[in-house]
Amino acid sequence: MTAALEATGLGRRYGKHWALKDCTLHLPAGRIAALVGPNGAGKSTLLHLAVGLLGPSSGTVSVFGATPGDPKVRGDVGFVAQDTPLYPDFSATELATLGTKLNRRFDRALMLERLNGLNVAVDRPVPALSGGQRAQVALALALAKRPRLLLLDEPVASLDPLARREFLQALMGGVADEGTTILLSSHLLGDLERVCDYLVLLQAGRVQVLGGVDELVAQHRLLTGPLWTRDAGSINGVAAVVRQSHTERQTTLLVRTDDSAPAPGWPDPQWTVSDVSLEDIILAYLADAGAGTLPGPRNLHRVGGSA
């Protein structure tokens, strides 16, 4: 099956600075993917390359097998930028009319019905709406395009918790019946854990972790036990130590296992084993740029980390 988004050795340079470099990823169609990383990791640059607003300085990027911006796929991609830009003199109704004229599959009725259901005044100019309502207008505009791939760049960053919840509910409701692939950039890890089933973690312009959320969570564990250092040798069933911390008597390790379903009693009685959340995993990898995985569930890139 053709990937919704694929990049190989992708790079984008601004002068002497590489915002994205040697970025390789494969996003299967039908996934709701979280795009996370520290500020400056290249998230917005990746999204702008995927939608065709920027061209690569190196490598390749494709959307459903075609170059972004190609007329064959241009209508299949929806994009909501970080500041949810909308024409300030337009109302939602007027934006819906514009969308109809610019997009062959645009569903004007769907957009207005969704906004009316959220009690957004569709005849008021955009600047007269609250920040949350403007974000809902931008999302409704993108969804009404009926995209196969929807790219969202920090769409809820400025919203209060209730507005964020309403936005995410609208997002999930809008794609449930369409099979739309979503790539959602956000720093709000709790929100991402609730709605996403795939993870793309960028660090310093490269993909550090990539894979299905359930698979990644199943392959990571928290071990607590006696003092341990790498010099003590490997731990049975541990493929990589992602993060470690120590007290005078105890070591805590976040590890990636050899098996997503370790046998009872693993790794041995001296270690207490606990499950971890997606947020735990993301924070552990972000804390150490050297800890990471290449695309694929079990290919270790480099491991490390200390605290």
From TrEMBL:
The signal peptide stretch is none
Which GO molecular function annotations are given, in alphabetical order?
ATP binding; ATP hydrolysis activity
Keywords annotated in UniProt: ATP-binding, Nucleotide-binding, Transport
SMART domains membership: AAA
Task: Spell out the InterPro entries in the cross-references.
Answer: AAA+_ATPase, ABC_transporter-like_ATP-bd, ABC_Transporter_VariousFunc, P-loop_NTPase
Q: What is this protein called?
A: ABC transporter ATP-binding protein
User: Which residue ranges run through the membrane?
Assistant: none
Q: Where is the ABC transporter domain?
A: 5-229
Q: Does the keyword Phosphoprotein apply?
A: no
Alphabetical list of Pfam families matching this protein: ABC_tran
CDD domains documented for this protein = ABC_DR_subfamily_A
